[in-house]
Amino acid sequence: MTGILAQVISLTSYGNAFLQADEFAEDFYPSNSTFQFCNKVDFKNFRKRIFSSSPREVPVANDPNEWFRFLKKDGCKKIRLYYQPAGKKEPAPDHKLAGLVGGGGTWMIETIYGRYSHYWFNRWEVTKKDDPDRKIWSVSYAMTDKDQPVTDVQMDIRETYSQLEESLIAITDFADAQQLSDWAVVFKKARAVLNSTDPARDYYHQDLLVEKHYSLIARQLLFATGAAWVFGGMGSWNDLGFNTEEDNKKYDDVSAGLYAAINQSVLAVANSY
Hints:
Elements: H1 3-21, H2 28-31, E1 38-47, E2 56-61, H3 64-74, E3 78-84, H4 94-97, E4 106-112, E5 117-126, E6 137-148, H5 157-177, H6 181-194, H7 216-228, H8 245-270
Parallel strand pairs: 1-6
Antiparallel strand pairs: 1-2, 3-4, 4-5, 5-6
Helix pairs in contact: 1-3, 5-6, 5-7, 5-8, 6-7, 7-8
C-alpha cells in the first residue's frame, strides 16, 4: 500500500489505543515505520479570515503524539477512517491513479466527538528532496470539515474477508490465463497471508497496528491488502495492456474489483476498534 494509506491507518490505530484504552506509545513518532521518510508531520485547523475568502492555517499540534493529547483534551471519543472515491472527477479509474500522490480517491481521518465529527485531510509535499536520510516529505493534516455528521463507517469483517478472497481468486485466474506467472505468485501470496496465523510476519510495516486490539481475522485481512497492493506506476500491474478488447476489459474489471476490496478491507479493519 502507499505510504499515505499506511500512515493514516497507523494514526487511527495508535490514536484509538490512546483515546479508548489510555495506552500512549511515547516513541510512536518519529519511530513508527510510517514516518520514516517524513521530516515533519503536523496538524492544523482552518479558520476564516475577516474580510477574506481564504482561510488561515492555525497550528493544532506539531507532531502525532501532541495531536493525540490534543484530541483527548478536546473531548474526542474515537478515530475512524473515511474514504471517498474520486470517480468521474478524474481522467482515469481510481485504481489506475492509486500509485500517485493524491490519486486513487481520498482518505481522510474522522475524529468523533459523540454527535458530530471533524474530518482531517492530509497533504504531502517534498520539501527536502536531497536529504541524506531520505526524509523528503513534509506532511500536514488539516481539519477541513468541522462539526459534520458522524459517519463512523462500519463493515462486517467476515463478509469483507470473503469479498477480498473472491477478488484475489478472480485476479489470480486472470493472471494465470494470461501466463503472467510473476503476478499470479503475488496474488497467491496475498491469499496465503489471508489464511496465515502470523499475517504480519513478512510485511514491511511490522508496527502498523497496535495488534492486540484486533482479531486474527482482522489482521489477516489488513496485511493481505498490503501483500495484494499492485497499483503503482511504470512497471506495476497498472502498466499492463492486452491485444484484445475483451482481455483489456477483463483486466480492468478484476483490477477495479481488487482495488475496491482492498479499500473496503482497510475501512473494515481500521474502524473495528
